[in-house]
Amino acid sequence: MENSAVKQKKRTGPGRAAPGSRWERFKRQLPYQLMIWPGMVFLIIFAYIPIAGLVIAFQDYSLSTSYFNNPWVGLKHFQSFMKDATFWMAFRNTIQLSLLRMCIVFPMPIILALALNEIPSLKLKKTVQTCSYFPHFMAYVVVAALWQDVLSNGGLVNNFLMQMGWTDTPISFWTDPSKFKALATFVELWKGTGWSAIIYFAAISGINSELYEAAKIDGAGRFAQIRYITIPEITNTIIIMFILSIGGLVSGNLNISQLLGNAFTKSESYIIEYYTLEMGLGTMRYSFATAVGMFQSVISVALVLLANFFSKKYEDVGLF
Amino acid sequence: MKHTGTAIRLTREDKAVNFLAIFIGLFTLLFTVYPIYYCVIYAFSDGNSALAHQIYLFPVDFTLDNFRSVLNDSLLVNSFFVSVARTVCAVLTGVSFTALTAYALTRKELVGRRVYSIIAMVTMYFGGGVIPTYLLYRSLGLLNTFAVYIIPGLLSVYNMLLCMAFFREIPESLIESAKLDGAGEFTILARIIIPLSAPILATISLYVGVGAWNDWYTAAYFVNDQKLMPMSTILMKLVSAAQAQQKAMENAAMSGISVGQRGPTSTSIRYATLLVSIVPVMCVYPFVQKYFVKGVMVGAIKA
C-alpha cells in the first residue's frame, strides 16, 4: 500500500502544484486527450469536410478547382432539379417505398417479438430467433440474387405454381413494374424482420414480471396481458424506433433499387439516391448531384426534429 | 390425463395463444430457412438436371461441378481473398480505433468531453452525402486503393456509442485501484477494460466484419481495378449481368432443350457462388451469436 502511494506521488511529479489543482487535473487527463484526438481528427476529415463540401451545391464546381474559387450560382442547381421530371419520379418512388416500409416493414418485428414471447417452448423460441437474425447478416447482393432466382420465370415459385396448376404461364415477377414495390417490401421484410425484433425482445425482457403476476391474480388472460401490459410497456421503444424511421421517409434503400430494380421496372424502382449517383458520378454533374443530396438530407433532419418535437410534447419520449 | 396433473391447467385462451405463437414461430423459421436451404440444394445439384426436374427438398444428380466452376474463375477466387483481407483489416483497425475513442469519451476527467461528444453526435444526423465524400476520397488519393476499404471505416459513431454504454458499466473502483498500483491509462485500457469488454467488442467486430464482407458499394463506385474487387461487388455485377440474360435463359428453360444434358448452368453456378459468399458468415455466426444479442440489448436499454 505504502509503496503504491509513493509511486503515485512520484508520478504526479514535484509538488509545484497541489494535487487537485487545475494544472494537475489537466495533466492527469492528457493521456485521454491522446486517445481522443485521432478519433476527432478522423471525424473532422471524414465527416466534417464532406459537410463543408456541401457548399458546392451553390457553386459551379469542376474537378480542376478547389471549393474556394468556383463561381457562386445561388440556387441554380436546386431550381434545375426541381424542373426535372426524372427527379420527381425518383422522389415519388422514394416516398412510396418509405411509406410501405413504415406501414408494413415497421410493425412486423413488433408482431414477431410479441408472438415469439408467447411461445411456451424456450428451445423453439431460441431457434426461431437465431434463424430469423441470419438474413440480416447476408449481403444485400446475395439476398437480391437469391430472390431473383427464386422468383424468376423458371425459378422455384413459378415451378411450384405451374406444377400445382395454379397458373399456366410463369408470372414475371421482376420485369413487371406494377409488382416491384410489393416485392421490394417483401425482400426487406425477409431480410430485416428478425433482426429488428431484437430491440423489442430486449424491451419485453426488461418488463417487470411482477406486473404479469399481479395481472394473473386479477384474472387477466394471455391476450389481456399482452394488450394491457406488454404493449404499453414497450410503447416507448416503439415510439423511439418510429421517430428514427421517420427520418428515413425521404431516403430510399439503394440496395433494393439498384440490385432488384432493372430497366423494365425503372419507373417504379428509381429512387433519389440512384438519381444522385447517376447525376454525380455518372454524368459528373457534381454540384447538381450535391444539391439533390443536400435537399434530401435537409428534409430528413427536419422530419426527425419534427417527429421528436411532437412525441416529446404528447408522449414525453424523445431522442434528445 | 394423468400427465397433465402436475402441470398448470391451460385454459382455452392459453391454448389459442400458444397455438398462434407456435404457428408464427414455425412459419418464420420455414420462411427464413427454406430459401437459403434451396440455394444449398441447387448449388449441389447438376445445373441442367435441376432445370429439367423441379427440386424442392433434395439435390438432384449430386455434384461439386458448380463449385469447381467457381474455383476456376480466377477473378472470383481473387475477390474472395480481397474480401477476406479487407474484412480482417477492417475489424482489427476499426474495432481498436473505436474502442480507444469510446474509452476516452467515457472518462469524466477528460477536459472538453462535452465538446468532443457533440462533435461526434452531430455526425450521426448530418452528413455530406455521396458526392462530397467522393471528392474527398479523390483528393486524399483513396480512390482505387485498398485503403478506401479500411480508412473511412475506422470510426463508427454508432458502434462507439455501444462501446461507451458498455464501458460505463465497468466499476470505477477497478480503474482507481489499478491507478494506485501505478498503471498508466493505456495499460488500464489494454489490461482491464478490453478483457472485460469482450461481449461488446465481439458485437462490434461482427458488425464491422459483416459490413465489410457485404459491402459492394465502395468498390462499385470508388474502385476500378479488377484485382481489388471484393466478392460482393463481383456478385453484384453477376446479378446485373444475369438480369440482362434473364429472358434468354428463361426461354431456354421453358422450351426444355436441356433435358437429358448434364453440366452446370449459369443459375447453378450463381447459387454456388452465393453459397461460397455466405459460408464464412455462417461459420462465424454461431460463435458470436450469444455476444451480439447481449451487445444489442446493452444498446437497446441505453437508447
Shape of chain B: globular
Low-confidence stretches of chain B: 1-6, 255-259
- Write down the overall mean pLDDT of chain A: 86
Major sheet of chain A: none
What is the CATH homology-level superfamily of chain B? MetI-like
Number of domain modules of chain A: 2
Report the C-alpha radius of gyration of chain A, rounded. Answer: 27 Å
* Beta-strand proportion of chain B: under 5%
SSE order of chain A? HHHHHHHHHHHHHHHH
**Helical segment count of chain B:** 14
Helix content of chain B: over 70%
Please compute the radius of gyration of chain B using only Cα atoms. Answer: 26 Å
CATH-defined superfamily of the largest domain in chain A: MetI-like
CATH architecture annotation name of chain B = Orthogonal Bundle
Overall shape of chain A: it is globular
Please identify the structural class of chain A as seen in this structure: mainly alpha
Give the terminus-to-terminus CA distance of chain A. 45 Å
CATH architecture of the largest domain in chain A: Orthogonal Bundle
- CATH top level label of chain B: Mainly Alpha
What is the fold named in CATH at topology level of the largest domain in chain A? MetI-like fold
Chain-wise SSE layout:
The complex is a heterodimer of chains A (320) and B (303).
Chain A: H1 2-11, H2 22-28, H3 30-52, H4 76-82, H5 85-105, H6 107-117, H7 122-133, H8 140-150, H9 156-163, H10 177-205, H11 209-217, H12 222-246, H13 254-260, H14 266-269, H15 272-282, H16 286-315
Helix pairs in contact in A: 4-16, 5-10, 5-15, 6-10, 7-10, 8-13, 10-12, 12-16, 15-16
Chain B: H1 12-43, H2 47-52, H3 65-72, H4 74-106, H5 113-125, H6 130-140, H7 147-150, H8 157-167, H9 172-180, H10 185-196, H11 198-214, H12 217-222, H13 231-255, H14 266-302
Helix pairs in contact in B: 1-14, 3-14, 4-8, 4-11, 8-11, 8-14, 11-14, 13-14
